[in-house]
Fold this protein.
Amino acid sequence: MRPVTDVPSGAMMQIHLDAEKCQGHNRCYALAPELFDVDDYGQAVLLVEGDVPADQHDNARLAAANCPEYAISITD
Ligand code: SF4
């Protein structure tokens, strides 16, 4: 597993999805269904706008770390 951007717990976090990189593996949806959905073509759709709720920070990191296309990034 590759390293993930280190965001201190309790800090603000935003998650970004690069739709052009997404190839529809749906790992993000499987790992973080509160943050991602899947559209009719199997591509990921981000469910959160703005700050990621604190209780979803770990799931956001997990999804970013497991996207094989590097389509998900998180920032604080
Ligand atoms: S894991 Fe990555 S490539 Fe797969 S659906 Fe999610 S964003 Fe797209």
Remarks:
- Residues 17, 22-28, 44, 67, 69, 71-72 surround iron/sulfur cluster (CB under 6 Å).
- The domain at 14-75 is CATH 3.30.70.20 (Alpha-Beta Plaits).
